[in-house]
Structures are given as structure tokens and as C-alpha cells.
Amino acid sequence: MAIKLKLSERLFDATVYILLSLLIIITLYPLLYVAFASLSDADRIVAHQGILLRPLGLNWEAYKLVFANSAIISGYTNTLFILAAGVSVNLFLTSLGAFVLSRKGVLWNRLIMFLILFTMFFSGGLVPLFLLVKGIGLLDSLWSVIIPFAISTFNLIIMRTSFMSLPDELEESAKIDGANHFVILFRIVLPLSLPVIAVVALYYAVDKWNGWFYASLFIKNRELFPLQVILREILISNSTDSMSSGGGDQYQIGETIKYATIMVATVPILLVYPFVQRYFVKGALVGAVKG
């Protein structure tokens, strides 16, 4: 039996749909603008002002110039290593820490949690961090952007909160069957926490993919540069060349190269989201329910 909605309810639904549609447009348009601009003719995009709803021509020259840089391939390789190794280390250590801190009766649990929270607001600073990385021999190594950032306090709290929401009876029954802490973690807790693990993994992956500052600080060997550092060099070099040449064709193609580099750096991580989207909302909510 169809339920007849009141006029006020219809107006409310229509308003919600309109607002959501506007929100989608506002969110997607910047990405579409960059995509259209990267495929446009250089001279036409420089002269264009206002809203861009389609490519001005169809020109792949900017992408050809970006991928013609031999460092792009090595940058992708280094970034993929940082992504795979970094996220693996992040998830392993974060899950261990969250599991311990989520257990009842752990000695000095509140004190340890306070000290961990303290690091969210206060840190040693950039110079001590550099000296630490240098002291443990990680300078000029891809591990310099993995090991010092193995655990994010924010992600640790999310995962800990999710683990605390699991029924205590699961752990108690596992202990009766002779399971130790590692069995409980890897065979019970983690399989039941896939949504929050997907969320935390995505947070770590985005951070690793977009990271360039610490890589440029700790790594000097160009063969070890991650993708973001390479793309940043392309942007800076094209801006510098454009300024030194006084504009003209070099400036115009430099503008489209900027848009192309943004697409090259953004699209791969966007393609990952659909695979974890079904976990994302559920995991974010689970990680925020219980303190």
C-alpha cells in the first residue's frame, strides 16, 4: 500500500535533494575543472576566464610532457613501495597498540593513553625529528618516511574505540578454548573489525600517497624521490622557466602541465576509494561510538 506524503514532507524531500545535488556539484566541479583544463589547448586555457564545462580542444601534450620525465616512473615505484610497506607497518603496529590499550585491566592504561594523547598536541619539533632520523641511520632511505610515522595517534584512537565496542564474551570464550592474545587479535578481533581497518588503511594510504615534505627533507638521492616530490619539481621548474622566458608558449604549456600533474597525483588514490567505500561510513561510525 502506497503511503501518501504530505505537502510539507514533499517540500522537505525536494529541498534535501536540491541541497545534496548542489553539494555534489560543488564537490566534483574543482576536479572536473582540473581534468578539463589539463586536456585543453594551452593558449585557449590561458585566455579562458570563468566556468569551464568541457575541454577547450583536446590536447594530450601536457600529459606527454609529464610522463616524458624519466623520474616519473621511479617516483611511482618509490611511492608504491612507501604505500605498501608503510600501510602494512602502520596497520600492524596500530592494531597491536589499539588491542593492548582496549583491554581491561592493563597496567597503567590511563597513563599510557594520556601520554599518547599528549603527542597529538605537543611534539619535539622538526629539528629533533631530523636528528632522530639521522641518528638511527635512516637518512636518504625510503624507510625514513615510514618508520618515524609508524603510528598515527588519531588512527590509534579510532581503532582502539572500535576494539572496545566488541563484546567481552568473545575474548572470554576464546581464552576458555586456550587462545592467547595473538590468536584473539588476529582470528577474532581483526576479522570483526574490517570496516574500521578499511577506514584506517585509507587514512594511512592517502597520507603516504600525498606525502612530500618529509621525503624532501630526509631524502636527497633523486632515484629515491617519491612521486609527489617529482611532481613538485615539475611544477616549480615549469613556473621558473615560464618566468625566465617572459611568458609566451612556455608559460602557456606550463599552465596545462600544472593541471596534468595534479591529475596524475590525484586520480590513482581516488580509484581506491570505491573498493573501501562500503566500509567507510560504517567504520567511521563504529570508531566514534564508544570512548
Distance between the termini: 43 Å
Q: Pick out the low-confidence regions.
A: 242-246, 287-291
H/I helix tally: 13
Class from helix and strand fractions: mainly alpha
Q: The biggest beta sheet, please? A: none
Radius of gyration: 24 Å
Q: What order do the SSEs take from the amino end to the carboxyl end, as H and E?
A: HHHHHHHHHHHHH
Coarse shape? flat
Beta-strand fraction estimate: under 5%
* Helix fraction by DSSP (H/I, runs of at least 4): over 70%
Query: Total number of β-strand segments?
Result: 0
* Mean pLDDT across every amino acid position: 82
Helix and strand topology:
Blueprint (H helix, E strand, L loop, with lengths): L6 H32 L3 H6 L13 H8 L2 H32 L6 H13 L4 H10 L17 H12 L3 H9 L4 H9 L4 H17 L2 H6 L8 H19 L2 H39 L5
Helix pairs in contact: 1-13, 3-13, 4-7, 4-10, 4-12, 7-10, 10-13, 12-13
Question: Would you mind describing this structure in some detail?
Answer:
With 291 residues, this protein is mainly α. Helices cover 73% and strands 0% of the residues. It contains 13 helices and no strands. The relative contact order is 0.14.
Write a short abstract of this structure.
The chain has 291 residues and is an all-alpha fold.
Question: Top keywords for this entry?
Answer:
291 residues, 73% helix, mainly alpha, disordered C terminus
